[in-house]
Write a structure and sequence with these properties.
By secondary structure, chain A is mainly beta. In chain A, 0% of the residues lie in helices and 51% in strands. Chain A has strands at 5-7, 10-13, 19-24, 31-37, 44-50, 53-57, 65-68, 75-79, 88-95, 100-102, 106-110. The chains are: A mainly beta (111), B mainly beta (116).
Chain lengths: 111, 116
């Protein structure tokens, strides 16, 4: 069964550093997403991406965040200057008419 | 704006008991999708079911069953004869079909603890 692949599974970074979280969506899916889950809380929508541009973003997705599809397969989330409160699990997802699939997540720890 | 409410934050049962998780949603769209996901301690989100707003038939899959009641905007989930492996956090989610990007709005989750 096709999977959404996320790397790394766990990343530790110092406050103020830039991080890039990587995702390989399912190849025939057209929509891509990033979600965030702070420990013990609900899963929150960050951004959706379609046709090489952002289609919707939440209030959480401020100027420190950016997304990119640098080639035909990868989909990345960049956090420019990490803060302690960015510590969370970040999920990538992709979807098409019939399916909505999440990756296994990247746990980001900002110290 | 869409909203999903899971009123139960934690449910504790003994193995073999049935457990029902409530989910109430709000949306202005007439076309939407409802989902349930399981999040085991390992952290990944495991897809359980997707139901569109025009299909009000209840569904059963093994020990899992879902009750969709459009009149009360509810999409409840029952685990029959619970097992220890069912211990997890369960999330209900909503996607409005007409919204650009098809984002999912999640409820706060219900933690299910099944004791042996």
């Amino acid at each position: 069964e096709p999977e959404v692949t996320q790397t790394p599974s766990h990343q530790v970074t110092q406050m103020g550093q830039e991080v890039i979280l990587r995702c390989v969506p399912i190849s025939n899916h057209l929509y891509f997403y990033w979600y965030r889950q702070i420990l013990g809380q609900k899963v929150e929508f960050l951004v959706s991406f379609y046709n090489n541009e952002i289609s919707e973003k939440s209030e959480i997705f401020d100027d420190q965040f950016s997304v990119e599809r640098p080639d035909g397969s990868n989909f990345t989330l960049k956090i420019r200057s990490t803060k302690l409160e960015d510590s969370a699990m970040y999920f990538c997802a992709s979807s098409e008419a019939r399916g909505y699939t999440f990756g296994s997540g990247t746990r980001l720890t900002v110290v | 704006a869409q909203k999903v409410t899971q009123a139960q934050t934690e449910i504790s049962v003994v193995e073999k008991e049935d457990v029902t998780l409530d989910c109430v949603y709000e949306t202005r769209d007439t076309t939407y999708y409802l989902f349930w996901y399981k999040q085991p301690p390992s952290g990944e989100l495991v897809f359980l079911i997707r139901r569109n707003s025009f299909d009000e038939q209840n569904e059963i899959s093994g020990r899992y069953s879902w009750n969709f009641q459009k009149s009360t905007s509810s999409f409840n989930f029952t685990i029959t004869a619970s097992q220890v492996v069912d211990s997890a956090v369960y999330f209900c989610a909503l996607s409005e079909a007409q919204a650009a990007g098809n984002k999912l709005t999640f409820g706060g989750g219900t933690r299910v603890l099944v004791k042996p």
